[in-house]
Amino acid sequence: MKKSRLSALLMAAGLLAGANAMAGDMRAAVVSNPCAGCHGTDGASAGEAPVIAGLSRVYLMQTMQNYKNGTRFSTIMGRIAKGYDSGQMNDMAVFYSELPWVDGKQDIDADLAAKGKDLHNSRGCNTCHGANGISPMPAAPRLAGQFADYMVVQMQYYQDPAKPKVPMAMPMQGMLAGLSEDDLKALAAFYASQK
């Protein structure tokens, strides 16, 4: 009799734990659902907006908080982020960070990417973004396979002294100083070409 009671308790505990995990996954999926309109199903954007699946939880959470408090410039995300509390942002960050990365589908100019690789190496970009744009640091985003056009816009944002900057972005101003739009396109082509 004691064995059957213990078995029943263990089974109930297992079911409860499974239900809680499913509820957490369901909550994250529901909270993240509006993101699909721009970032694609499961964070694998088809273009324009960045791929967010597979980015680190730390980076995603930090980015959403910065959009919400206005320290990261945006045209759309600042308004969207204001609609979420910290718990919901964390649920989304965990949800997307656990999804596999999917490279953005795009045409890449090999000559431009080669020039970008030279710039990547000479400017010290690998310090934060790794040898091939896969960051070893959780607070720095993966650039390998990201959309080139999106990266150009972001680099132009970092170059613009009038736009608000988060502390992590401050080094980017120096790293990108003096680079032309063609240089930015080359860097973006290099990162977009990496897997």
How many β-strands, per DSSP?
A: 0
Percent of residues in helices: 55-70%
Backbone structural class = mainly alpha
Radius of gyration: 20 Å
Q: Which term fits the overall shape?
A: globular
Head-to-tail CA distance between termini: 58 Å
| Quaternary structure of the protein | single chain
H-E string? HHHHHHHHHH
Largest sheet: none
Tally of separate helices = 10
Name the average pLDDT: 86
Task: Describe the 3D structure.
- With 195 residues, the chain is an all-alpha fold.
- Helices cover 59% and strands 0% of the residues.
- The chain has helices at residues 2-32, 36-39, 57-69, 77-81, 86-97, 110-123, 126-129, 148-159, 170-176, 181-193.
- Helix 1 (2-32) crosses helix 5 and helix 6 packs across helix 10.
- The chain starts with a helix and ends with a helix.
Summarize this structure as a short list of keywords or feature phrases.
195 residues, mainly alpha, 10 helices, 0% strand
List the helices and strands and how they pair.
Layout: H1 2-32, H2 36-39, H3 57-69, H4 77-81, H5 86-97, H6 110-123, H7 126-129, H8 148-159, H9 170-176, H10 181-193
Nutshell version of this structure?
The chain has 195 residues and is mainly α. Helices cover 59% and strands 0% of the residues.
